[in-house]
Amino acid sequence: MNKLIQNEMMKLIAKKRLVVIAIIIGILVALFTYAQFKENERQREKLGTDDWRTIIQQTIIDQQNRISSPRISDEWKQQLQIALQQNQYYLDHDINPSEPGAPTFMRIFLENSIELFIPLMVMVIASDIVSSEHSQGSIKLLLTRPVKRWKVLLSKYITLILAISLIVAIAGLLSYSISGLVFGYKGWGAPVLTGFSVTDAGLNTASVKLIDQWQFLLMDFGLVWLVAIVVGTLSFMLSVLIRSTAAGMGVMLAALIAGAILSNMVSSWESAKYFFMVNLKLTNYMNGNPPPIEGMTLSFSMMVLLIWWAAGLFVSFYVFTKKDVY
Amino acid sequence: MENITLSVHNLKKVIGKKEIIKGISFELREGEVFGFLGPNGAGKTTTIRMLVGLIKPTSGSIHIGGYNIVDHFEEAMKHLGCIVENPELYPYLSGYDNLLHFARMLDGIGEQRISEVTELVGLRDRIHDKVKTYSLGMRQRLGIAQALLGRPKVLILDEPTNGLDPAGIREMREFIRFLAEEEGLSVLVSSHLLSEIQLLCDRVAIISRGTVITTDTVDNLLSNRERVVWRFHPLEKGKEVLGSLTAIEEREDGTITTEYDEIKTAEWNKKLVEAEVSVTEMYRKMPVLEDLFLELTGGDSIE
Ligand SMILES: Nc1ncnc2c1ncn2[C@@H]1O[C@H](COP(=O)(O)OP(=O)(O)OP(=O)(O)O)[C@@H](O)[C@H]1O
Ligand SMILES: [Mg+2]
């Protein structure tokens, strides 16, 4: 099995797709960094250079006063407490909350690329990994060697998972190192709000708490990786089913874009929530953004994705081991 | 007794509702080159795809080196090397990496064997170049090197001379003969070029519309069908005389062809001379497979 994976890696590297993907991510990150930099500059001009400290100090004092006021409800008090903690951290660590460091940039970058950008990059590799053997005709040699078909496919799938992990890691690394050049590398410990849950009554903030940014990032990475694996597995399935790489990519692209559009329309079409593509924005649940369709929760979305993943994997292996190769 | 390396029994394949292979049986022996001859669309490639495990037979069985390829796929494939249609290797890898790739799929085949087969097919100078820079002939050789990596007992080549120039065809032919005679491989070669099979093979199966019409040694097939070609003067008179004695066939070049039989042929000649027809030319002719093929298939289209 190791040797088979070595083979797949050799082909993947020779095709130079990973390099292209790394370059695309690099360019995109540089662009976003520049945009953010411009935005910061504008803000600074508006406020004056060091004014943000005074403003935060002012806000903190204001918040402290309100907390100590007896007329305020417990729930409200709790929320103020959280906001106050956040502001205190920024002040103590000399971080301008509207001018984030590299970790914050990385977090925002991940949250915005989970739905479309990372899946697209993953798709570039996954949709080609089986179908290219068909279009080149090399499948005829690959499948007439004394290795069972499921082993051949498994080696490809494992390679895909390794490649996906690499892509997610590259995305993290590049967004951190490039944006850090401009914004500095501080901010791993910055407090981030999490723990929202959405119920019928609206946003439930009862269990909201502050966690360190690095912890939050770790969860973000986990979710991005999960989404990437699911999208990768489905593209992999298409790659098995459809002989043409371009057609496979087209189908997946259509699905992903449809997902992005569907989740932006406030959908009254409730059963759309069972589509994998409207469940991709997992990081939204952590930020407390309302889900695209009522009743969707983090565990619901993960469940839906898991089912699609399992089905995709099953279909891939079933078809690949059974089908006639012409 | 010669060993059977590949045996095919009553093989059938239905695609959709169409029966494409309608019960094919044959055997390959050690050290022989076996020809698979048929016109376009006869089912040669389809049969070969079943032999190498790319498509599943609808019914019938295939044994390679004694192993059924459905039940013991891995063991059976260890004894097999093949090129189906064109040798399609990875163009973006070097020849060496391609060989390495397929060596990794075999047990106990390492660098030494890779350089052995490279040497054998004469690709040593270019083996580290990318395959996309190879000529068709070089790709063909690399394909064969790949097929020979695992020291197979059976080599299956689908139209191996497709696209090669005359020198390349000749070289390929000699190489295939070498593999069979010196290395003891069984080689199955498919072709729609009759002359090629005639020169290359020991035995041949003639296949048309998914059935084997006949299987025999090339020598037998040819010697049973020796012909005599006549030329005489005057033509009309001669035709009349000869036609009353046996079935005749007139050619456009003014020659007449009849069957050959040692005693009868001399008799007919005598009758012609007695009828004052002067025989200007008379010779024995081995049929080419073209004629044979037309005869057997009743004129099914060939290229
Ligand atoms: N995937 C398929 N679906 C339907 N029919 C097929 C398929 N593959 C082959 N056939 C049919 O099977 C028949 C045999 O095809 P095959 O490719 O085996 O011929 P061949 O003997 O190799 O011919 P050639 O000399 O042209 O290579 C043809 O009539 C072809 O149309
Ligand atoms: Mg063919």
TrEMBL record, chain A:
Signal peptide start-end: none
Pfam families given in the database record: ABC2_membrane_2 (PF12679)
Keyword vocabulary terms for this entry: Membrane, Transmembrane, Transmembrane helix
Domain of life: Bacteria
Gene Ontology MF terms in the entry: ABC-type transporter activity
A cellular component term, taken from the record's GO annotations: plasma membrane
Membrane-spanning residues: 18-37, 152-178, 223-242, 249-269, 298-320
PANTHER family associated with the record: BACITRACIN TRANSPORT PERMEASE PROTEIN BCRB, INTEGRAL MEMBRANE PROTEIN-RELATED
Protein name: ABC-2 type transport system permease protein
From TrEMBL, chain B:
Pfam families per record: ABC_tran
Domain called ABC transporter: residue spans: 6-234
Database matches in Gene3D superfamilies: P-loop containing nucleotide triphosphate hydrolases (3.40.50.300)
SUPFAM superfamilies in the record: P-loop containing nucleoside triphosphate hydrolases
Key words, A-Z: ATP-binding, Nucleotide-binding, Transport
Superkingdom per UniProt: Bacteria
Gene Ontology molecular function terms on file: ATP binding; ATP hydrolysis activity
PANTHER family: ABC TRANSPORTER, ATP-BINDING PROTEIN
Family the UniProt entry places it in: Belongs to the ABC transporter superfamily.
Annotated protein name in UniProt: ABC-2 type transport system ATP-binding protein
Organism: Neobacillus niacini
